Structures are given as structure tokens and as C-alpha cells.
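Duplicate of #3305? Posting structure anyway:
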């Protein structure tokens, strides 16, 4: 996580253009990756990122410094919220409701053996509803109650989407790892 000291934050708050440019340049790549996790199109992620940074700079005076990573965490939250708004505006979020679901565990050894880019590729192949709930729960750490509130869905739907996402992801990963085994023979 990118760190910033309190003096740097004060410079950004005071409107120092050099500090704000440095903040943008240091946070651009990691925040672009955050936006891309939610939006499948490069151009949409770029738009989301720019809207997010406009909100960052418009509201930076409201930011409360609480340690060297607090600014990064605050910006990340803005980007996630911006991506969710973007998805809602595009009406690009489809959910399938099931009354009962069972949690689907992800085998840690499969995930640990994969490169981050490969895992991200598989996550991006998930349908938008699955991908969004998966990202919010597994990557961002939101619980189902928070996800339900953010997406205006029920907790049952959130759980269902996560279980389906994990199942589909596990199937995609096992197909990939079995095809690697076939290539090596």
C-alpha cells in the first residue's frame, strides 16, 4: 500500500499542484487496477478513475489523516464507490437469486500457485454480478450486509452471487491447471 506522510497530505489539501500531481502519478496505476477489477472495459475503467480522482481532489480537505496508509485507503474507497456507481448507471449488473446457498471454499493451494495476472484474468471472465460481489467480499473485505447495502440487493443474493462466483472461478482455474498438465505431457 502506498504511504504518504502528514506533511504531504497538508500540501495536497492546501492546493499545492506539484503535490497533487505526485499523488495522482503515484496512485494512478494501483487505482486503475481497482477500477479494472470491477469494470471489464479499459475505457470504462479510465473514465471511472478520472471521475474518482476528481472527487478525491474536490473533497481532499475533508480527509482526516490517520497514519501513512490512510490516504491510500481513502482514495481506494472512493474508487470502489465510483466503480459501483458506474456499474449501476450502465445497468450492467445482473444477479440470479437463489433462496439457499452453501459457501464454496476456494482451495488456497490453487490460488497460491497462480500468478496474480492469471487469477485476475479469471476474475475478469466472471459475469458482472459475480465479479462485483466477489471483489467486494474477497478483495475489499466487505461483509454481506455491507455488500447488500452498497448494491441494493438482499444478503441472500450477495451470498448466492459469491458462492456462484467461487464455484465458477474454481471451475475455470481447474480447467486451466488441467490444460497446463496436458501441455507438459
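Output from current build:
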Amino acid at each position: 500500500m502506498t504511504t504518504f506522510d502528514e506533511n504531504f497530505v497538508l500540501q495536497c489539501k492546501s492546493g499545492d499542484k506539484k503535490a497533487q500531481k505526485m499523488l495522482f502519478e503515484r496512485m494512478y496505476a494501483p487505482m486503475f487496477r481497482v477500477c479494472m477489477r470491477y469494470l471489464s472495459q479499459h475505457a470504462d475503467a479510465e473514465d471511472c478513475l478520472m471521475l474518482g480522482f476528481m472527487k478525491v481532489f474536490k473533497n481532499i480537505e475533508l480527509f482526516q489523516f490517520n497514519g501513512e496508509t490512510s490516504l491510500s485507503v481513502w482514495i481506494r474507497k472512493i474508487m470502489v464507490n465510483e466503480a459501483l456507481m458506474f456499474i449501476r448507471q450502465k445497468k450492467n449488473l445482473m444477479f440470479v437469486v437463489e433462496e439457499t446457498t452453501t459457501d464454496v471454499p476456494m482451495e488456497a493451494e490453487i490460488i497460491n500457485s497462480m500468478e496474480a495476472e492469471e487469477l485476475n484474468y479469471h476474475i475478469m471472465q466472471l459475469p458482472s454480478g459475480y465479479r462485483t460481489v466477489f471483489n467486494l467480499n474477497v478483495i475489499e473485505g466487505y461483509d454481506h450486509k455491507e455488500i447488500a447495502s452498497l448494491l441494493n440487493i438482499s444478503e441472500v443474493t450477495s451470498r448466492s452471487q459469491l458462492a456462484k462466483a467461487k464455484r465458477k472461478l474454481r471451475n475455470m482455474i481447474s480447467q486451466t491447471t488441467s490444460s497446463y498438465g496436458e501441455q507438459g505431457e
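Confirmed duplicate; merging threads. The CA atoms of residues 178 and 184 lie 10 Å apart. Residues 6-90 form a domain with the Rna Polymerase Sigma Factor; Chain: A fold (CATH 1.10.1740.10).
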